[in-house]
TrEMBL record:
It comes from the Bacteria. It comes from Halomonas lysinitropha. The chain crosses the membrane at residues 23-43, 63-92, 133-152, 198-230. NCBIfam families: PRK04949.1 (NF003433). High affinity, high specificity proton-dependent sulfate transporter, which mediates sulfate uptake. Provides the sulfur source for the cysteine synthesis pathway. One of its GO terms (cellular component) is plasma membrane. This is Sulfate transporter CysZ.
Amino acid sequence: MLDAFTALTRGTRLVYSRGLRRFVFLPIVVNLLVYAAMLWYVLGHFGGWLDGWMAMVPAWLDWLSWLIWPLFVLSLVLIVFFTFTLVTHLVAAPFYGFLAARVEQEATSRPPLDDRGLVKTAVDALGRELVKLAYILPRMALLLVLSWIPVVNLVAPLLWAAFSAWIMAITYLDYPMDNNKVSFADMRRRLKARWWPTLTYGGWVTLITWIPLANLFLLPGAVAAAVLMWERHYRGVESDTAPGRPPQAG
């Protein structure tokens, strides 16, 4: 049984093996540039954002400020994390999609079903990222609103943590599924059908992304792990367009 942690371990070893390590260089450079730019911006504005949030706390809750302040800090950190993640993957998506295809060929001795050329694959990868953003941003906005509501915001960090695991699973497992012509709607259905591997994989990837600088070198391993998880847990899930099953709307 291939669990999420084992997949990440194997995937990291795989992408840094002799045949694949050259495909990891560009994603790492892209992530490093985005990481540096976002870190510079956040450090310059974090204090102002936090002060603005604390100013919204009503006077009758002043006695809870000792609890509300750290929860606001945690929620804000999670929001910054999500923003950084979305921007990074939007920029690096073409590289990750290509890396996932090479890993699948190396790990399974067969290429993915995708027969697009390199340029079209890169363009379509950006389009797929925009589809992900259309799915993620409304839900992220709802959590952001909940984070501002007194009392309700006490559970906001837990909601952000669960949401982050789900979104990390969608973000990375989508690369091999897109390469194998699985629609975004079908991908979400497959992830729900295998919800435990999905959430454990997403949880581990979330933890990886929180390791400063080291995450730049570990995230390509998460792409490879997604390929291994696809092969073990999701490829065999019945497609929405299987014979006798009417296609579902996206």
